[in-house]
C-alpha cells in the first residue's frame, strides 16, 4: 500500500503543476476579456451601435465573463494547492460551462455572419439617413468614414437622399483633403464627387468581417477546446487525490 502511495505522489505533483500553470494562463485570458470589455464599452460604443439594431450588451457580457474567469482562475489555483477533490470538481464543472458557452458563441458568429452583414447594412443606412452631425450615431459615422477612408453606405451617393445633405451637403468626414474641401463644394453634387472618398463604407466593413471571421472563429474554438484540457486535468487530479486519500485510510 505504501509503494502505491509512493507511485501516485509524483503523478499528483505533476498534475498539480500542470493545472496551476493552466489556471494562471486561464486567469490571464480572463483579465484580457475584462480589459477588452471595458475598452469596448468606453471606446467602441458608437461603432457597436452602428452594427446592432438595438442597444447591445456585448461589452457587459465580456466584462462579466472576464470577471468570472478571473475569479475562477484564482479559485482553480487555490483548489489545486489545497488539493480538495470537491473544489477541483467544481472547477472542472465551471470549465465545461465556459467551453460550451465559447463553442456556441463561435458557431453562432460564424453561421450568422451574413445576418450580421445584413443588420449592419440596415443600421448604417438608417444612421446615414438620419445623420445630423451631433448625436452618437452621427459621430460614429464620421469616425468610420475618417478611419476607413470611405463615404456613405455603398458610395458617396448614399448622402444625396439624406436630410443632412439638403441643408449642409456631404459631411466633411468624407473629404479626402480637408484643406481643399469647402462647405460650398460639399453642397454641389457636381463638384463634391471629386472631393470625397469614392468607396462606400459597407463594402470595407463587410470585407473585414468576411476576411477575419475564419480567424476569429478558429481562435475562439482553440480557446474553447483548451478548456477541455483544464477540465481533464482537474478531473484527473481530483481522482488521484481521492484515490491516494482512500489508500491512506
Automatic annotation (TrEMBL):
Protein origin, superkingdom: Eukaryota
Bilayer-spanning residue ranges: 20-40, 60-78, 90-112, 215-241
Cellular compartment(s): Membrane
GO cellular component: plasma membrane
Bilayer topology: Multi-pass membrane protein
Database matches in Pfam families: Tetraspanin
Keywords: Disulfide bond, Glycoprotein, Membrane, Transmembrane, Transmembrane helix
Cysteine disulfide links: 151-174
Function field: May be involved in cell proliferation and cell motility.
UniProt family annotation: Belongs to the tetraspanin (TM4SF) family.
PANTHER family with a match to the protein in the record: TETRASPANIN (PTHR19282), TETRASPANIN-7 (PTHR19282:SF257)
UniProt name for this protein: Tetraspanin
Species classification: Eukaryota, Metazoa, Chordata, Craniata, Vertebrata
Amino acid at each position: 500500500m505504501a509503494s502505491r502511495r509512493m507511485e501516485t505522489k509524483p503523478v499528483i505533483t505533476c498534475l498539480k503543476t500542470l493545472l496551476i500553470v493552466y489556471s494562471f494562463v486561464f486567469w490571464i485570458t480572463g483579465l484580457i476579456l475584462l480589459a477588452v470589455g471595458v475598452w469596448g464599452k468606453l471606446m467602441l460604443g458608437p461603432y457597436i451601435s452602428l452594427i446592432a439594431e438595438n442597444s447591445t450588451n456585448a461589452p457587459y457580457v465580456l466584462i462579466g465573463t472576464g470577471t468570472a474567469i478571473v475569479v475562477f482562475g484564482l479559485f482553480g489555483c487555490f483548489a489545486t494547492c489545497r488539493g480538495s477533490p470537491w473544489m477541483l470538481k467544481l472547477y472542472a464543472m465551471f470549465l465545461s460551462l465556459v467551453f460550451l458557452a465559447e463553442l456556441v458563441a463561435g458557431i453562432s458568429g460564424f453561421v450568422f455572419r451574413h445576418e450580421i452583414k445584413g443588420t449592419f447594412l440596415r443600421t448604417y443606412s438608417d444612421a446615414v439617413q438620419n445623420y445630423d452631425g451631433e448625436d452618437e450615431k452621427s459621430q460614429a459615422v464620421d469616425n468610420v468614414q475618417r478611419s476607413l477612408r470611405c463615404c456613405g453606405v455603398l458610395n458617396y451617393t448614399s448622402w444625396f437622399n439624406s436630410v443632412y445633405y439638403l441643408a449642409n451637403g456631404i459631411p466633411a468626414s468624407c473629404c479626402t483633403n480637408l484643406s481643399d474641401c469647402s462647405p460650398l463644394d460639399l453642397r454641389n453634387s457636381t463638384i463634391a464627387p471629386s472631393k470625397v472618398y469614392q468607396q462606400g463604407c459597407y463594402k470595407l466593413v463587410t470585407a473585414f468581417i468576411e476576411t477575419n471571421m475564419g480567424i476569429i472563429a478558429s481562435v475562439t474554438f482553440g480557446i474553447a477546446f483548451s478548456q477541455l484540457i483544464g477540465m481533464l486535468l482537474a478531473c484527473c487530479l481530483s481522482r488521484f487525490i481521492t484515490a491516494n486519500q482512500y489508500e491512506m485510510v
